[in-house]
Amino acid sequence: QVQLVESGGGLVQPGGSLRLSCAASGITFSIYNMGWYRQAPGKQRELVAVSRSGGTTNYGDSVKGRFSISRDNAKNTVYMEMNSLKPDDTAVYYCNAGGVAGHWGQGTQVTVSS
Fold first, then answer.
1. 71: exposed, middle or buried (Cβ count in 10 Å: 0-12, 13-18, 19+)
2. Mean pLDDT of 47-59
3. pLDDT digits over 69-109, tens only?
4. What is the pLDDT averaged over residues 37-44?
5. Starting at the edge strand that comes first in sequence, how are the strands of the sheet with 18-25 ordered?
6. What are phi and psi of 45, to 5 degrees?
7. Looking at residue 65, what is its pLDDT?
8. Is the dihedral of CA 21, 109, 1, 53 positive or negative?
9. Cα Rg for the chain, rounded, in angstroms?
10. Please, which residues have CB within 8 angstroms of residue 44's CB and are 6 or more apart in sequence?
11. What is the DSSP letter of 45?
C-alpha cells in the first residue's frame, strides 16, 4: 500500500519560510519523480516543483527563486523549502509520486497571512 504523508504546513507571515516534508512508503522511492502541487480555493491544482529520479528539478514560474525541492532517497523523503512566502502561496500543498496519474498525499495547509 502506497502512502505519502506530508508535514510542515502551517500559518506564516508574509516574507516568512516553511519547510514541507513528504515521507513515502510502499514505493521504490528512488525511481519515482516526486513533486509538490498546490490548490488554492477556487483554483485548479498546479505544479509547484518536481524532483526527477535522474536528479533534475523544475519549478512553477510563480515560485522560481523562492522555493527549493530536494529529496533523500535513503529516507524515502522529499522536501520543499519555501522562502519569501506571499499571501498568494496560500493553498493546500500535496505531495505526488509519479505524476498526475500516480500517487497523492492527503495534503497540508499552508496559510500566508499577517
1. buried
2. 97
3. 999 999 999 999 999 999 999 999 999 999 999 999 999 99
4. 96
5. 3-7, 18-25, 77-82, 67-72
6. -65, 135
7. 97
8. negative
9. 13
10. none
11. -
**CA dist 14 → 6, 55, 59, 66 (Å):** 22, 31, 20, 13
Q: Angle at CA 70, nearest 5°, toward 6 and 37?
A: 50
Quick one: cell of 110?
A: 499552508
Grid coordinates representing 41 are 480555493
Mean pLDDT of 44-53: 97
- Contact in structure between 88 and 14 (CB atoms under 8 Å): no
State mean pLDDT over 30-37: 97
